Amino acid sequence: MGNLLGKDKPLKEVLRENKRMINKAVRELDREKRGLENEEKRLTIEIKKAAKENQMQSVKIMAKDLVRTRQHVSKFIEMRSHLQGCALKLQTVKSHQAMADAMMNTANAMKKMNKAVNVQTITKMMAEFEKENAKTEMMQEVMGDAIDDALADDTMASEEQEAQIVNQVLDEIGITFTNELPEASRQQLAQEADGPAKVAVAGGGVEDPALSDLEARLNNLKR
């Protein structure tokens, strides 16, 4: 009926119809098998009853029917197994078809993407990116060097200013301390600048506490 108008059915539709037919046949086989199994049970009961009544002729006839019934049950089981194998093959074909469709759709999508992407434009864009990136790195390096130089100049200037302040303070303290001492103490202080740390008082041999304190303060300032 599907080819009356000259149109072929899609593969999915054909697979669906075949699967439906196989499932229907399996259901019919199961129904027939259940009927034969019920008949087998009935014959078994009749054989036992006839045997108790000593009707051996009837027992032989019903035994033949029982054997044939069991053979038909085995054949139905075998046919059902074949139908299930056919259903599995159809399912495998359907899976292969789905995989083929997916691959075809993927190939079409990749083809469209390749057409949409301009390789020359991407290459040019990457070249510009590398160029601008190199400029940025060079600018950062130049700025870093300039900052380092500026900080180094500031550090040197600060050290020079600190040295000047320290020398100025030492000079001022030295002048003040020298002005506070008598003339003899000035001469001893000038002689002891390069000499020992202690000075003995003439005639007594006892250390002057004021000179020792002054010497200690000067040594601390020179450190």
Computed structural class? mainly alpha
How would you spell out the order of helices and strands? HHHHH
Q: Major sheet: size, sense and barrel closure?
A: none
How far from one another are the termini?
Answer: 116 Å
Strand content: under 5%
Question: What is the typical, i.e. mean, pLDDT?
Answer: 75
Question: What report would you give on this structure?
Answer:
By secondary structure, this protein is mostly helical. The protein is built from 5 helices and no strands. Helix 1 packs antiparallel against helix 2. It is elongated and about 155 Å long. About 7% of the residues have low confidence.
Give a nutshell description of this structure.
The chain has five helices and no strands. The protein has helices spanning 11-52, 56-116, 119-180, 183-191, 209-222.
What labels describe this entry?
5 helices; mainly alpha; 0% strand; 223 residues
Give me the secondary-structure topology.
Layout: H1 11-52, H2 56-116, H3 119-180, H4 183-191, H5 209-222
